Amino acid sequence: MNRDWNHDFTAILEEAPESEPDRQRFFIARAKLLAEEKSAGLGRPLTCCINTFGCQMNSRDSEKLMGVLEAIGYVPVEDEDADFTLYNTCTVRENANKRVYGRLGHLGALKKKHPGMIIALCGCMMQEPQVVEKIKKTYRQVDLIFGTHNIYKLAELLTQRLLSEKMVVDVWEGTDKIVEELPTDRKFSFKSGVNIMFGCNNFCSYCIVPYVRGRERSRNPEDILDEIRRLAADGVVEVMLLGQNVNSYGKTLEHPVSFAELLKQVTQIEGIERIRFMTSHPKDLSCELIEVMKSSRKICPHLHLPLQSGSSRILHIMNRRYTKEQYLELVDRIRQAIPNISLTTDIIVGFPGETEEDFLETMDVVERVRFDSAFTFIYSKRTGTPAAEMDGQVPEDVVKHRFDRLLTQVQRISSEVSGRDLHTVQKVLAEEVNSHDSRLLTGRLSNNTIVHFPGSPNLIGKIVDVRLDEIKGFYYMGTLQK
Ligand code: SAH
Ligand code: SF4
Ligand code: F3S
Which of 115, 227, 384, 479 is surrounded by the fewest CB atoms within 10 Å? Predict the structure, then answer.
């Protein structure tokens, strides 16, 4: 053990390099020494657990956070009763926040029986000042709070916490920084999310994401392509390009590059067999993108195209910047170019001022487009967004009734369209052993539909031919083709 160890954080700060990622590499090494000391005292390795709420953006962030924790020497465990437990939070709807508060009580109880346990919170919820205030006041069991803009600083913040008994809080309002090249621990060996941009400039009037994730920033195409090349070399066959609105990728770069151009370059990377992306805002989905999708067999025939509402009047107040007609026209154009495409969507019910007529417009679009699946949400008022101040908040029982009708329709259509490849042989990426029946593997078609089929775990990560024998609601049962 290193005995000339300096236990003063201020002194350590003076030694730390200024530039990133060197600074964090330095703190990873520092935290590692502290962790080794703790672990030697306990006579066992230190454990860590990350619980991720929210979207793919958060999942990807958690992989980066886990990469840093493992580099420090923590061993990942499923159980939240770990030496370091981190919640990566989401605040897109109120119920996401409620879940976190609920579980913090439980973590506090665990900590009482687990001396030295560190409880940390990060992610979108922590970008809301009133949330941080509430935690500081009511949830004193929390040791460390940081936001969405400085997740790369985990090693530095953890070092600080390990050397003091005080709650460490570091939340930034915004950033123009993108820190590359810190360790990452991928959840799956064969597929990975890849951030292509951060933040959002769209300010849909109901949405809190632009406030908690900051302004739109695109990564340099070369950094993205390098990352994907490294992933491919490491056995990844599928990448999901991530951004709140991938269709506006590259607009703010010094040398602007369109999303379609980026996508084309990703298709050139050897070893990558499947390319997905999320999310596409309908307002700037280009003809160029449709052409690129059509011309590459690697780009999965799936588009997640959030509708939000079918009423042009509501779409206008939502600040979505397209009409019902434009959305339908776009869907027609996509389907003409790529007839087998799978379309999925997000829909909000009960936006302020939504009338029965507006709601019926949404039902009409759902009926006409026939989405493969749709995520349906009850409108949730988010403090600080324009919609929170709007008149005409819809009564709960009315919203609930509309929500149920929409869900029934979405599910009926989904079960009707999902079976369209029945009795054909399709390429399936085998992803995991089925959680209910270990004789089965679970995989996905390129259009993202789930397939269960008998097979051995050594096929995981491989793309195999499977005959689709039976459709059960939204998934298939199949047989492996030799
Ligand atoms: N950037 C993506 C969506 C990110 S949030 C896009 O523009 O499509 C994911 C989904 O959450 C949104 O599509 C929307 O349907 C839903 N959502 C966002 N804010 C919401 C709110 N205040 N209440 C209910 N649902 C909301
Ligand atoms: Fe929110 Fe709209 Fe940005 Fe999506 S595009 S994250 S819904 S503001
Ligand atoms: Fe939630 Fe933040 Fe994603 S608010 S949906 S985790 S960007």
Answer: 115
The sheet that has 302-304: what strands, in order across it? 302-304, 342-349, 373-378
Note the pLDDT tens digit of each residue in 158-211. Answer: 999 999 888 999 999 999 889 988 999 999 999 999 999 999 999 999 999 999
Q: What share of the chain is helix, strand, coil (3-state, %, to 5)?
A: 40, 20, 40
Cα dihedral 100, 102, 108, 109 in deg (nearest 10): -140
Q: Whose CA is nearest to atom 4 of ligand 2?
A: 244
Collapsed DSSP state (helix, strand, coil) of residue 241: strand
The token duo for 455 is 């097979």
Dist. CA 472–CA 481, nearest whole Å: 20
What whole-number distance in Å separates Cα of residue 353 and Cα of residue 465? 50
| Cα(296) to centroid(ligand 1), Å | 29
Give residue-wise pLDDT tens across range 61-114.
Answer: 999 999 999 999 999 999 999 999 999 999 999 998 999 999 999 999 999 999
Q: Can you tell me which residue has the tokens 């995989």?
A: 443
Joined together, the tokens standing for residue 240 give: 């999901």
The residue with tokens 């506006």 is 248
Nearest CA to ligand 1 atom 21: 380
Q: What is the pLDDT of residue 7?
A: 65
CA distance 65 to 179: 13
Query: Which numbered atom of ligand 1 lies nearest the CA of 387?
Result: 22
**Phi and psi angles of residue 117, each rounded to the nearest 5 degrees, phi first:** -65, 140
**Would the pLDDT of 137 be above 50?**
yes
Here the tokens at position 340 are 């087998």
Q: What is the pLDDT of residue 25?
A: 96
Asked if residues 466 and 428 have their Cβ atoms less than 8 Å apart, the reply is yes
Tell me which residue of 392, 237, 385, 241 sits closest to 302, measured CA to CA. 241
Phi, psi torsion values for 275, nearest 5 degrees = -125, 125
What tokens were used for 82? 């770990």
How high is the pLDDT of residue 402? Answer: 98
pLDDT in tens, 307-348: 999 999 999 999 999 999 999 999 999 999 999 999 999 999
Nearest-atom number in ligand 2 for the CA of 308 is 7
**SS3 (DSSP) at 27:** helix
Q: Is 194 exposed, middle or buried (0-12, 13-18, 19+ CB in 10 A)?
A: buried
CA distances from 90 to 137, 185, 257 (A): 20, 21, 30
